[in-house]
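HUMAN:
Just now I want nothing more than another pair of eyes on a protein record. I would be glad if you read both lines and explained how they fit together. I have put the entry right below:
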Amino acid sequence: MSNPSFLSVPLLVAGGHKMSSVEHKDNDPRAATTDVLRWRSGTTAKAPDWVACEEPLEIRVKGEAVAITMRTPGHDEELALGFLLSEGVITGRGDVLEVAHCQQGESALHGNVLNVFLSPRVEFDLEKLKRNVYASSSCGLCGKASIESVRNLFEPLTKRDRLIEAEKIIKMPGQMREVQQTFEKTGGLHAASLFDAAGNVLMLREDVGRHNAVDKVLGRALVDDHLPLEECVLMVSGRASFEILQKALAGRVGIICAVSAPSSLAVEFARENGQTLIGFLRGETFNIYSHPERVAGLNC
């Protein structure tokens, strides 16, 4: 159930027009409806519209909060597992005993607190994890100390065989859009999708945050015992940040594609860790920033 405190405050716009609160419909936790004032050719009219849902999720391990992220509700368990995988806390399905929403207090009403129960054999530094996470932002890690603390969590990839044809890659954005159901409603969600070497969509997750969408994909792969993902391609909407590359490395993904630009740190990270990084994947073009050997048909 959605948190009423995030949904019930009326919106005010210039000119004194009072607009309705946001409402959930169609039992879709990822999208809600609200009234908007639509301006077209000098005429203003009130109309209903879809917006992407955004609510906080608190992830707890051993009863303590280790992360609070703004996310789109849905697939929360996958998000939590993908997050813990990318932070090096867990490596496989056997490391997790249970993932459950908090059943006590106000948290139980809103479903925005998630408890992860780990196997007793899993050892990790809880305080270090909390320090690393709270030094980050929704856009990625901030600060040299934070970057260095996660940079060497995972071994570089060594397998770099031909994996996919260039002609398959340029079709991926269109294939991804076809299965972005909530994006079609709202226009406000990022997506992360896994493809196989034949260019088929294996899985897609949507979220207001690119990194959350990637965590959900990794979490699902962990639950299904499909790790490592060296034979898969990960595609993300928007740009490719350092954090996206680090998460992909946690899942052992060999090729990462982005619709927009990579950051300089993402390029550096991909080159250091044997990842093939592709950016500006639009229409009939894309740029390869590192390790092109996994892509066939380059004619170079």
Remarks:
- The chain has three domains: 4-52, 55-151, 164-296.
